[in-house]
Design a protein that fits this description.
With 90 residues, this protein is α+β, with helices and mostly antiparallel strands. It has one domain: IHF-like DNA-binding proteins (HU Protein, Chain A), CATH 4.10.520.10. Helix content is 42%, strand content 30%. A 3-stranded antiparallel β-sheet has the order 1-2-5. Strands 3-4 form a two-stranded antiparallel ribbon. Strand 3 (58-61) and strand 4 form a beta hairpin. Helix 1 (3-14) crosses helix 2 (18-37). The longest helix is centred in the first third of the chain and has 20 residues, at 18-37.
């Protein structure tokens, strides 16, 4: 499912217009991104948690040349589903 299909399904289920749902979804995604940028985690009980994962610098191997390369530290967003969500998708 892509963003457009999600908006259509939410609009159908809620009775709201697609434009309204698109604005709500955009605000939702923007707020999660802002919280993560501040270093905060976002907890949606029954759904899951969005948080940052910090990776240390490490040495990797180029699979093509087998040459060792230095990988810099990085930060990435991580989603951890809640137990309720895990049980629903079994």
């Amino acid at each position: 499912m892509n963003k457009k299909e999600l908006i259509t399904q939410i609009a159908h289920a809620s009775g709201l217009k697609k434009k309204e749902v698109a604005k709500i979804l955009a605000a939702f995604m923007e707020n999660i991104a802002e919280c993560l940028a501040k270093g905060e985690k976002v907890v949606l009980r029954g759904f899951g948690t969005f948080r940052l994962l910090k990776r240390k610098a490490r040495v990797g191997i180029n699979p093509r040349t087998k040459e060792k390369i230095n990988l810099p530290p990085s930060v990435t967003a991580r989603f951890q589903p809640a137990k309720k969500l895990k049980d629903q998708v079994k």
